Amino acid sequence: xxxxxxxxxxxxxxxxxxxxxxxxxxxxxxxxxxxxxxxxxxxxxxxxxxxxxxxxxxxxxxxxxxxxxxxxxxxxxxxxxxxxxxxxxxxxxxxxxxxxxxxxxxxxxxxxxxxxxxxxxxxxxxxxxxxxxxxxxxxxxxxxxxxxxx
Length: 150
What we know:
mainly alpha
C-alpha cells in the first residue's frame, strides 16, 4: 500500500511540475521530498544519505547563480541552526541539514514565505495526527516544492 501511495504522490507532483514547466529543482524536490517525508513521518529522522545529495543537486541546478544559491542556503540553514541551538527540543539536526540544502533552491526573497509555509504545514500535520511533536521535514519539503514550482 505504501508503494502505491508513494507512486501516486510522486506522479502527481511530477505532473504538476511538468504542466507548469517548472525548473529542474521541482522534479528533484518531488522525488526526494516524497521519500524523505515518508521516512521522517515514520521514523522521525532524515538520513544524510538522502539529504546531502539533495542539497548538492539543488546547488547544481543553480550553477549560473551559484553565489545567490549559497547565500540563500546559508541564511535558511543558519536560521534553522539558530532555532536548534536555542531550543533543541523544537528541531532535529536532520531538519537543519535539510534546510541548508533546501535554501539553495530558493531565492532570497522566498526564504521568509518558505519558513512561514513550512511551519503552517507542520502545524497541519500535527493537527491531523493529533500530536504535539511531529517532524518538521515534510513541512520544509512541501513548502520548498510549492515555492519553486508554483
